[in-house]
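Protein Record: Sequence and Backbone Structure Tokens
======================================================

Structure line: whole-number tokens from a learned vocabulary of local backbone shapes, matched to residues.

Purpose: to set a sequence beside its fold so the mapping can be learned.

___
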Amino acid sequence: MRSTQLITGALAVIATTVPFGIGGAAQAGQPTAPTSRTTTGDVTTTHERGIVLECTGSIHGRDVFTSVYENNTFGNVLQVVIGDDGDQVGGSRSDRDGFLDRGRVRAAMKVDGTRALISGSARRVGDRIPVSEELDDAGQHVTSTGFHRSLDTDLRLTWRRATVPLDCATAFAYRLTVTKEPIE
């Protein structure tokens, strides 16, 4: 019997199964750092590490959602969404070099023609949390084992001459071994 253990809800799934950017463009052909990938028959094993910073806030009276996602195997993606109505603006972009460097976060992109900048700090805190998950996705059985570790963040969003704090309570770093095999 296969079981699925949800560590941090949708965030755990993102960190183990997102082989493509938010916009859907495949990133698998552009590893951002040397990675370990083993393929035996139809089974592929990767050793993945990165961060997930999903944050919320409010700017100019509008709700904000941001996602700073790094994965050394499948790429780095920034997403910014402002508003939750018919006037919603936002987008995403990939970045080969990533957004976190020595504890400093810097991620920028154009949103509705104006530069949106996420900046601040992120540092690992607390104990490593063991992860052991199994799930079926897109015709593959995915097994992930490894660790998550919480990140303490102090991030801000600057857009259209306003700077506001972001709440990133679920932020974490991960180091996982991910095995994918066809479902028979």
Summary: Residues 51 and 155 are 14 Å apart (CA to CA). The longest strand covers residues 140-159.
